[in-house]
Amino acid sequence: MNISVKIANITFKNPVTVASGTFGHAEKYYNLEEVKKLGSIIPKTVTFHAQAGNPPVRIWETPSGMINAIGIENSGIDGFIQTKLPNFKKIGVPLIISILGHDEEQFVGIIEKLNQQEGIAAVELNLSCPNLKHKTLVAQDPQATAQLVKKVKSLSKFPVIAKLSPNVTDIGEIAVAAEAGGADGLSLINTFTAMAVDIETRKSRIGNFTGGLSGPAIRPMAVAMVHQVYQAVKIPIIGMGGIATAQDALEFIIAGATMVAVGTMNFVNPRAPLEVLEGVVSYMKEHKITDIQELIGSLKQ
Amino acid sequence: MDQIQNTYRVISNEKLCPQFWRLSFEAPALAREIQPGQFVHIRAGETLEPFFRRPFSVYRAQRYVEIVYEPIGLGTRLLAAKQKNDTIDVLGPLGTPFVLPPAGIKQVAMIAGGIGIAPMLILSDILKKKKYEMLLLYGGRTRGHVYPMKEFKDNGVKVYIATDDGSAGVKGRVSVLFDKISRDSSTTFIYTCGPSVMMKAVQDFAVKHQLKGQAACEEVMACALGACLGCSIQTKHGYKTVCYDGPAFDLEDVIFH
Fold first, then answer.
1. Domain ends where: B63, B94, B125?
2. Are residues B72 and B163 in the same domain?
3. Average pLDDT of B133-145?
4. Separation of alpha carbons A116 and A91, rounded Å
5. Could you tell me if A19 lies within 8 Å of chain B, comparing CB atoms?
C-alpha cells in the first residue's frame, strides 16, 4: 500500500500532519516513537521579532470548538532557530515551518535566515497578516497574496505553501492568486473570525476582543472550501479544519486534500493524529485501495 | 509514567459536602509521581460536548488519586455521573508543583477559597512529615461550601473557617482570618489557591508583612501541555502558562486582576 504523498519535490511518508500552533514541543510529554510516525510536523507560526502574545483571556470553549486569540506568542525567528528547531529536527519527521511577517520585508528576513538552515522540508506562509495598503489581511486580497507568494518564492530554497483564510468572499480566487504567485501548495483553512460575549459584564470573553474559531464546529465549511479550491488549482492542498477522526480526514482527502492536518483536536486528544493515520490505513485496506492517489479528489458528482 | 494519556478505573465518586464532590480513581504510577500543586486533565465525556478537557488539582494521591470538584458546568456534571468501575481518560501528571518551604520555616499557612482547597490536602500530606505548624484558613460562600475538615485535622492542620454569610465559622472573607498567621517572614511561608480576588488579598497581606509564598493559579485551559499557550496569565516576568510554567508560581510574581 502506498500512502506517501508529494508536495513539490518533497515526499512525505504519509499524509498526516499537525496544524500550526497545536503541536507542543515539550519533549517530556510526547511519546517520540509515536510522533515519529507522523508524515510531517508544522510547528507554531514564527514571526521575525519575538512576540509576547495577546492579553488573557486567550481562549474560549464553544460548541465543538474553541475561539483563540493567542497573538502568535513566539520567540522570533532567531529564538526559534536556536532553541526550538534543533529539538524538532531530532524527531526526524519532515518539518514545514509556518512563518508570518508583518510586512514583506519581515517575510524576506525570515526566509533569509531559514535559507541558512538544513533539515526543513518546506515553509508555510501564514497569510493572515496585515495587508498594510488596504487595511485587510494579505489572505483577503488576491493581488497582495500573489505578490507576497511571488516574493518569498523567488528567495526561498524550500518549497512554499500558502495558508489561506476562510474569512473571504471567494477562497477559490485567493487560491488561484497564490498558485499564480508560484506557491507549491496550499494549506486551508485558517480560523474563522469569531467572538463570544459575557452577558453579565457585556464584555467580550476574549482579551483581544475577537479571535478565531477552530475545531470540529468548522469542519463542514473547511471541507467545502477544500473541494472548491481543488477545482480551482493544480497544486496540492493540505486540508485542515476540525479534523478529529480518520473519517473526518478522509472527507478532506476525497474532497481534494493531498495531506491532512489535525489541529485543535490535539488539545483534546493528543493521540488524534496517530488515530487518524491508523484509521486512514484501515479504510484503504477495507476498500482495497492500494495507493492514496486513488482517493485524493475522488469525490463523485 | 510511560505515557501521559491513560484510561483509569473509577473507585468512588461521592458528595463531600452539599457543594463539592470527590472522585477517586485507580492510577498507581500517577499516584506515586504526582506532586502537590500538579494537576490532571480529564475528558469527562466521549463526545465533543463539552469540547475541552477539564483540569483538576490532585487532592490526594495515596492508594488512589483523588480530585475534588463542584458540579456546576457540563464537564463537572458529567463527572458527577461517573460510577464505580466506569473509566475516565486522564492526562497527567501535569504542571509545575509547589516548591516546598525554604529552610528555617516553622509555620505554613495554607489559604484557600472554595474549590481552591483542592491542592492543600496533598500538600499537608507531604508537609506533615516535617513537623511544621500548619494552618488552613478556608473561605467559603456558605456552610454548604465547607468541607468536612477531618482529613486536614488528622494531618495536624489547625483549621479556621470563614463564610460570606456567617453560616459556618466566622462571618466574612478569608482575610478576616489573617490574624492567625505569624508575621515573621523568616519562619512563615504561605500557600494559596482560590479566586483571583482572594489571592490578590493574600498577596497584599504577604507584601505588607514581607512574607513569601506560592500561589496555585487557574485559567481557561485547552491542551494543558504547554502547546496552545491559551492559559497564559500575567506575571512580573511576562506571560506564563498556568499549565506548564504553573499552576504554582511565586506569590509575589503573579499579577492578579
1. B94
2. no
3. 93
4. 20
5. no
Residue from A18, A32, A58, A198 whose CB has the most chain B CBs within 10 Å, to mutate: A58
Note down the domain range covering B57.
5-94
pLDDT band at B1 (very low <50, low <70, confident <90, very high): low
Instruction: With respect to residue B197, please indicate whether it lies within any of the assigned structural domains.
Output: yes
pLDDT confidence of residue A30: 76
Query: Hey, which residues 199-238 in chain B have their CB within 8 Å of chain A?
Result: 219-223, 225-234, 238
Residue B154 contacts A, CB cutoff 8 Å: no
Let me know whether B112 and B206 are in one domain: yes
Same domain, B114 and B207: yes
A280 belongs to the catalytic site: no
pLDDT band at B203 (very low <50, low <70, confident <90, very high): very high
Tens of pLDDT, residue by residue over A262-278, are 999 999 999 999 999 99
By three-state DSSP, how is residue B203 classified?
A: helix
ipTM, two decimals: 0.93
Predicted TM-score of the model (pTM): 0.94
Question: What does pLDDT average to over chain A?
Answer: 95
Fold of A5-55+71-196+216-294: TIM Barrel (3.20.20)
Q: Are A184 and A206 in contact (CB under 8 A)?
A: no
* Residue B204 in domain: yes
User: Whole-angstrom Cα distance, residue A164 to residue A238?
Assistant: 10
For A55-78, write each residue's pLDDT tens digit.
999 999 999 999 999 999 999 999
Which of A29, A52, A70 is nearest residue B228 as measured by Cβ atoms?
A70
B 12-51: CB under 8 A from A: 43, 48-51
Instruction: Give the C-alpha separation, A249 to A227, whole Å.
Output: 13
Beta bridge mates, A122:
A96
Name the residue among A5, A29, A26, A32 with its Cα closest to residue A274.
A32
Q: Does any CB of chain B come closer than 8 Å to the CB of residue A112?
A: no
Does A55 contact chain B (CB < 8 Å)? Answer: yes
Nearest CA in chain B to A270: B5
Whole-angstrom distance, CA of residue A162 vs CA of residue A148 = 10
Please report the number of interchain residue pairs, chain A to chain B, with beta-carbon separation below 8 angstroms: 99
- B175 lies in some domain: yes
